[in-house]
Amino acid sequence: MATLATALDKLFENGMNRTVRAAPIREASAPVRPFANEDIFFYVKRIDNSRVVRAADPQARQVCWKLIGSVVAAAVLLIAVLLPGAYGLLAGYQIQTLRQDARRLANERASLELQEAQLLSPARMEELARMQQFVDPAPQKVVYLDGQPQVAQNTGLREASLNTAAEGNRK
Fold it and tell me: Cβ distance 101 to 109 under 8 Å?
């Protein structure tokens, strides 16, 4: 099989000596080169530790509890240090939300006040009166109150209407 290197060598070697470049040729009768340390044999012995019991270490339990306690204390301390910052961050989000709500409500209030002004305008009232066929009362039927409390209160009429309603309920 030809490679690029051998093809290029053949191209550029026209007048050069080919014997200098030639690699040593193996003899057909020579055996394959042996592996390094091929004569060493490793025996793997199966180890059965099922009957082995771990020796009790009286200090290991105390060391584990100390480690657990110190990790819990470090976690509580870390939470205590980070909690005010997180609370401040959440409060900032809440403040921004409240500001946006205040802006939205102010805009909504302004639009509602504009609608109210449009609905209560005298021109709108006159249009509604024409649509519902309201008529102005005759000038003789208009009563002007000039600070007379007895006319404004109508106490006699009110008591009479209450008495007739009570008699109607009894029957």
Answer: no
pLDDT value of position 135: 83
Tokens 């509604």 sit at which residue? Answer: 128
pLDDT tens track for 110-138: 999 999 999 999 999 989 998 998 888 88
Model pTM score: 0.38
According to the 3-state scheme, what is the secondary structure of the chain? CCCHHHHHHHHHCCCCCHHHHCCCCCCCCCCCCCCCCCCCCCCCCCCCCCCCCCCCCHHHHHHHHHHHHHHHHHHHHHHHHHHHHHHHHHHHHHHHHHHHHHHHHHHHHHHHHHHHHHHCCHHHHHHHHHHCCCCCCCHHHCCCCCCCHHHHHCHHHHHHHHHHHHHHHHC
Cα-Cα-Cα-Cα dihedral sign, residues 8, 10, 12, 17: positive
Average pLDDT over residues 144-169: 61
